[in-house]
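Encode chain A's predicted structure.
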Amino acid sequence: MSTSAMDVHHDHAANVLADPTAYADDARLHAALTHLRANEPVVWVDNPPYRPFWAVTRHADIMAIERDNNLFVSGPRPLLMPAEGDDVMKQQQDAGIGLRTLIHMDDPHHRDVRKIGADWFRPKAMRDLKVRVDELAKRYVDKMRDIGPECDFVTDIAVNYPLYVILSLLGLPEDDFPRMLKLTQEMFGGDDTEHKRGEGSTEDLLAVLMDFFAYFSALTASRREQPTDDLASAIANGTINGEPMSDMDTVSYYVIVASAGHDTTKDAISGGLRALIDNPDQLARLQNDPSLMGTAVEEMIRWTTPVKEFMRTATAATEIRGVPIAEGDSVYLAYVSANRDEEVFTDPFHFDVGRDPNKHLAFGYGVHFCLGAALARMEMNSLFTELLPRLDSIELAGEPELSATTFVGGLKHLPIRYSLR
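Encoded structure for chain A:
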C-alpha cells in the first residue's frame, strides 16, 4: 500500500465496509453507505485486521473502474480479506498452489479461461437447461407444500434448489450435493459463527479449499479419462492456446462454478422472497400481473446484492472523483452502495417489482460481468413463476437472520408461515 494514512481524512462510517457484522445489520450498513455517498463517496478505510484501501460507493465511479480493467486490475487483491489471508494467498499463488478463479485473474489470461465455460451459459444452453430448472422449481415448491405450514425457507428450499441446478449442469451425482453444500457454506462463511469451519482462521479456510481441491482433482482425472456431456468435462478438457489448463486453474474453475454458482442465487432467492413478504402490495402486484416477473427478478437481485464487493489495484497513479489514487493502492467496489445510489435509482429504498430501467451492478460490470448471470435469472424466474400462483398467504414466522460476511452473503434463516396449493 503506497498511500500513507497520514495523508488522508478518515470518515469512520466507512469502517462498516471492513466489519463482517455490519452486513448482518441492514439498517446499520445502509445508514453508513447513504452517508458516504452524500459526503465522501471515495473514502480511505483503515480498519485492522484488514489492510487499508479506498472505498468507492457511487454507481458511476464503480462502472468507470470496471470499464478500465487495464488501469484497475484484480490481482493481487481481488477481494477483501484480513492481512494474514492476503499474505497466505500470495504465498500460495507464488508457489503455484493457490486458488486462482476467474475473479483472481486479469486479461488476457482471464479472457482465455472464461471462454472455456462460456458456451454452457449462452442462450441456447439456457434454453436446453430450462426443462431441468422448471422441474426442480416444481420439486421444491411441492416440498414447501408438503412440509408446511411453516419452514425455514433458506435451509429447506433456497439453499438446495440452485445447488441442484448448478451441480446438475456440472454433471455431479446427487449423493455428492450435501458435501458441496457444506464446503460452500464453510468457504463463504468464514466470518459467520454458524457456518465457519473451526475458528474461521486462515488455516481453517485453507483446509476447506484443500477439501475442494481433493474432490475436484479426482473429478478432473475421471472426466479426462472418460469425458461426458457436461460442464465438468468441458472444464477438465479445456485448453488455452492448445495446451491443457493447469491443474490449479482447472480445480479453481470448478470451485467458482460450484460455490458462487449456487450460493449467490440462494441469497437472491431468499432475500427476494423476504422483500415480497415485507412489501405485500408488491407481492399482490406480481401475483396479479405475472408479466412483471422479469423486472421483479432484477429488483430482487438489486435489493439483495449477494456479492458485496470486489477489490481492484491501481496500476498507475490516477484519481477517482478528484481524489488522488497512488499506483499500487487497493480500491474497494461497494456494489451494495451502488445499487442504492440516489443518482441512478428513483426512490432506491423502495422495492418495486416493476422497476425499469434497473441498472444494478449486482453481477458486476465489464470484463468480469458474472458468467452465470443468465442462469441465476432463469432459476429465480422459474421458482417464483411456480410459487406465486400457488401461494394463498405468507408471513414471517420468526426473525430473519443475515450472515456476517465481507464478500458473499445474505439470509441464513428465513422462518415463514404460509398456505400453499
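Residues 5-420 form a domain with the Cytochrome p450 fold (CATH 1.10.630.10).
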